[in-house]
Amino acid sequence: MSEKALERIRKAKAEKATTLNLSSCDLEKIPEEVRDMIWLESLDIRENQALTDLSPILKIPNLKSLRFQSTRIYELTPVSELQNLELLYCENTQIIDLAPLAKLKKLQSLNCSATKVADLTPIANLSKLHTLRCVSTRVVDLSPIANLTNLTDLNIGQTQVKDLGPVAKLLNLTDLFCFNTHVSDLVALSNLHKLEELHCDGTNITDLSPITHLTNLHALSCFNTLLTDLSPIKLLIQKGIPVKWQDFEEYISSRSGEKSFILLKGTPLIIPPIEFAQEGNEAILEFFDQLGDDRTPLNELKIIFLGEGAAGKTSLIKRIRKETFNPKESQTHGIRIRKTPFEIGGDTINAHIWDFGGQEVMHATHQFFLSRRCIYILVLNSRSDEKAEYWLKHANSFGGSSPVLVVLNKIDENPGYDVNRKQLLEKYPQITGFYRLSCKNDEGIADFEKALQEQVARSDTRRTPFPKAWLAVKQHFSDMQADYIESEVFRQVCAENGVDKIFSQDVLLQFLHDLGVVINFRNLKNFDTQILNPLWLTNGVYRIINSPIVAGQKGLMHERDFDAVINDPHFNTTNTQEKPFRYPKNKLEYIVRVMQEFELCFPLENHSYVVPQLLPVDEPEFRFEGTVLHFVLRFPDFLPDSVFPRLMVKLNRFIDGDLRWRTGMVLHKPSVFNARARVRADREDKEIRIDLCGEEPRRFLSFIRETVREIAADFTKLDYDEMVPIPGAKKEFKRYSMLVAMEKAGKKDVFSEELEKDVSLASLLDGVEEPVMRDEIEQLPVQAFVSYSHKDLDYLEELRAALAPLIRLNKLKIWDDRDINAGEQWEKEIFRELEAADIVLCLVSSDFVASDFCWKKEFEAALKGHHKGTKTVIPIRLRQCDWDDLPIAKLQAAPSSNWINQSNDRDAAWTEVSKQLRPAMDKAKQRKKKLLEKQRKLR
């Protein structure tokens, strides 16, 4: 027995204390000294891993509370004599049988979670029981607890329970947890009017109607279920219970102090569409108000054709549209969108069919339009089947679980043509079928059309109801002939059709964008060109990517050349079937900004842009000095063409002069990282190789890795392995994730096959990454709110760029008011984000101080949180002003030595701001860690 246990026993005896805590005392048995402490009412012996026997407690008849979680105790017989027991926690033990508890009539709280308990019959008559937790047990049947009418808290999460019927009589229930069970309906809950909290996430429930009248409900967790309709809980939403597109872990890590929530992430919502649920309560209620009692389905969807050039995509589309087959069909350039009706079940369903050009140089632009709620059709022929997985990965990465129909075309030319169907189905389960056909002689066309109609019929967008007013707006823009319109025109059309609230207009606009009817980029709203004809936009982008002018300038495009590049007469004669596009000078910058937004180009300081795909192919001469650190990112299945150009765009401010080429770049910015890096992509090997030297190679490497991770997150399923080279070995690499797992498991070494000896894990991991980067606390996100005057917008951009290392390495998330749409709800959104922030950055200038909103509202609210210790306020000194006597001047400001606009070295000044922000982030992470641990215990 440990000295710690003896000391606690001595003290308890001396004071004749009724409570004894012997948790985590390395006990192998209950000390003999405890036997004669008959006055004890509470005994805590949890977290003693070697403890197996409870027999000594037989001598303590007055026990009311007994906790022995996380022990090896397997037998409850000694407990049967404790007639005064009110609380028993035996979580994470070897307990199987609850029979010894049958006579404990005073028992009020029982936690037998993470045990092998399967039968609840022994507790059927414990009428005083008010709390029962049997999470992660073998319980299937709840019938034994049907008459425990005093139960208020029931947790049966992660069990095999299917039927909640026995719960129907538990009218005092306030908290019910049935997450990750086989429950599929909530009918049994319809009369549980005292229910306040319901966790049914991870189940097969489809309908919330049974809980419509449970007006005391304030916490509902139903993420990762099969819910399609939120109408039954409209009253809860109207009461203001926050709707969040989050799971439970995300919720508790991003919000503090809120006990009311509706969590919906991962549900296939139709009413309202997911987009509205993601926007929150206001959007949902606006949708319901507009919808009224009309449930007319939208009956529209998007169908995307993928495949190599000359695979026969256009010919197949013509067959679907009942058009004449042309054996000399010209190859599609850019993109064509065709509205095609399907007659199904008496309804006309309009499909927007997108035919992408198969040219490789255009593949990176597919990200504009690939989405999760559409049907993909992959067209292959015998000359392009080696690219089957390339395109399937595209559909998988961008489309998630969207169905894919694989067409094996031109079988009239190659009757024996086929693919390894079993292998492809195993790797890509979203494939719904393979169809061998010939557009030339119609062989297989009928079977394909039947399969396509089945997918169209079950499409979510077919069933989505659209308010009549919204349908009118959508139809107006579907019929429009203009290539683009201004924002004011869109709002005017909305108002004319009854959609008069700005918030509703903005949400509708985004939904139309996602549907593919119009294109709108929220981050480019300042250009006042919110609505575009997709063909007008894509043709403009394609013209830049295919421009002989830009190619001749080795990927450089000057502002003065925009007109010549985009309005090059060559493009108006390429395809005479398409109408000639013309781009006014006041719209040229917008198209370039779209490319910049999607990371297809990046700006230089001299009013020029770089298009990475058009850079020179040859790698320039470059030599490293000193020790070189090597690292490899290996994409086993698929390295999308867009990944490396996007990486170049994101890291462009770190590129060392002109050291950039089509597949690589050299990075160097000593004011941020005292290191130099060469980053190269190898398409054949599907790898990105990173070599570094200098004094801070590990931190710079972590920054680059996090940037790649950020890009990969935009794909639904893009897997890659981070590979660590074995020092001294020529070709041997180990997976970084495996090394980290081995370190967590307590391993010290890993065996090198090439060197035939053990290699230190610490030396491998610490060689490529600072140990702090593997710390759990460091991975907790920190929310920063920026309060600023709009006259200081340029400084805000400088701030974001300067904090990029903290954003990518230290999980800093920055929010400013440009992240919301203009409208009547903007102030509410600002204060919601301000309340959620861990850090508030005030960009101080005379305009900031003069702004009533910044000073009197945002700063005063932030300062209250600062004084309460729930957030940290940091003034960023932008432009000198008379602030010495103001409350904000008493706070620790950054930079401490000078104002930003007076600094001779702006990079150095911003670097100081970044460094001064780190202690505040550490403090915030500690706060969040404590909250997370507390919430997990409650869960």
Main features:
939 residues; alpha/beta; Rossmann fold; Arc Repressor Mutant, subunit A; seven-stranded antiparallel beta sheet; 27 helices; 36 strands; 30% helix; globular
Task: Please summarize what this structure is.
This protein is an alpha/beta fold and 939 residues long.
How are the SSEs placed, and which strands pair?
Blueprint: H1 3-15, E1 19-21, E2 42-44, E3 65-67, E4 87-89, E5 109-111, E6 131-133, E7 153-155, E8 175-177, E9 197-199, E10 219-221, H2 234-238, E11 243-244, H3 248-254, E12 261-263, H4 274-279, H5 281-291, E13 300-306, H6 313-320, E14 335-344, E15 347-356, E16 374-380, H7 388-399, E17 404-408, H8 421-427, E18 431-436, H9 445-457, H10 460-463, H11 468-479, E19 484-485, H12 487-496, H13 502-515, E20 531-532, H14 534-545, H15 548-552, E21 556-558, H16 562-566, H17 585-597, E22 602-603, E23 608-610, E24 629-634, H18 643-650, E25 655-661, E26 664-669, E27 673-682, E28 687-694, H19 697-712, E29 721-725, E30 733-735, H20 736-744, E31 749-752, E32 757-760, H21 761-768, E33 782-787, H22 793-802, H23 804-809, E34 812-815, H24 826-836, E35 839-844, H25 846-850, H26 852-868, E36 872-877, H27 906-938
Parallel strand pairs: 1-2, 2-3, 3-4, 4-5, 5-6, 6-7, 7-8, 8-9, 9-10, 10-12, 11-12, 13-15, 13-16, 16-17, 17-18, 33-34, 33-35, 35-36
Antiparallel strand pairs: 14-15, 19-20, 21-23, 22-23, 24-28, 24-29, 25-26, 26-27, 27-28, 29-30, 31-32
